[in-house]
From TrEMBL:
Descriptive protein name: Aliphatic sulfonate ABC transporter ATP-binding protein
Residue span(s) of domain ABC transporter: 13-229
Domain of life: Bacteria
SUPFAM superfamilies (alphabetical): P-loop containing nucleoside triphosphate hydrolases
Gene assigned in the entry: ssuB
PROSITE patterns assigned to the protein according to its UniProt record, in alphabetical order: ABC_TRANSPORTER_1 (PS00211), ABC_TRANSPORTER_2 (PS50893)
Any Pfam family hit: ABC_tran
An example molecular function term from Gene Ontology annotations: ATP hydrolysis activity
Source organism of the structure: Streptomyces lacrimifluminis
Keywords: ATP-binding, Cell membrane, Membrane, Nucleotide-binding, Translocase, Transport
Amino acid sequence: MAPHTEQLTRSAVRLRGLTRSFGGRKVLDGIDLAIPAGQFTALLGHSGSGKSTLLRAVAGLDHQVEGSGQLTAPERVSVVFQDSRLLPWRRVLDNVLLGSEGREAAAKGREALAEVGLKGRERAWPSELSGGEAQRAALARSLVREPELLLADEPFGALDALTRIRMHGLLRELWERHRPSVLLVTHDVDEAVALAERVLVLEEGRIGLDLTIDRDAAARGEYRGLLLAALGVTEDVR
Ligand SMILES: Nc1ncnc2c1ncn2[C@@H]1O[C@H](COP(=O)(O)OP(=O)(O)OP(=O)(O)O)[C@@H](O)[C@H]1O
């Protein structure tokens, strides 16, 4: 019944003609998109362009899109948001485990916390963590589910610039080690280019630009101007 249960081989995510309207206004207007398994994709777009709407649809959180087109996504999907959404009344390890019990689960949870650099903080309360640490815990919580697809909606948007750079390194490292497909929603052109293999720009309800990122060209800053132009942004002359 649910498209999410379909067995996928080559593509992790496939959208065909996906449309979503709110009050008669089309936010997503027939989106066609295939994301190969294991690809790191970033989705850029102005505020209100429909990035979160698209992500929610792929996460299976939006039942209204059913029937509007075709949507397939893997079964094991984890979502990370701008705020960590840790439960304040549970210790960090219990937040990561959420629902799973037993020694094996606890060992996996500890391992995931160690991977994100939170070894020794298992028994801390969420209120004792910094913003960056809380996002690390959120990443650990998503990892223990061994997701085939990681959806991240502005996961570093609330962090200071230095913490954000460290988190970029961590996310790339985790992706290289575990190789889930990643769909990262961001406003930040530099973040998209620094992290992703492919950058999509959402405009007027459609994918307006679909760029494959070459690491060397990215290091030379070759995509920045193109992406800013696609977003209709002109940089001030410095
Ligand atoms: N539940 C809803 N009811 C009505 N309108 C909605 C709803 N969810 C989203 N919208 C509208 O759809 C449009 C796209 O919203 P969405 O949150 O997907 O944009 P976004 O690109 O993620 O924006 P931002 O970058 O600011 O988070 C907006 O105009 C928003 O007001």
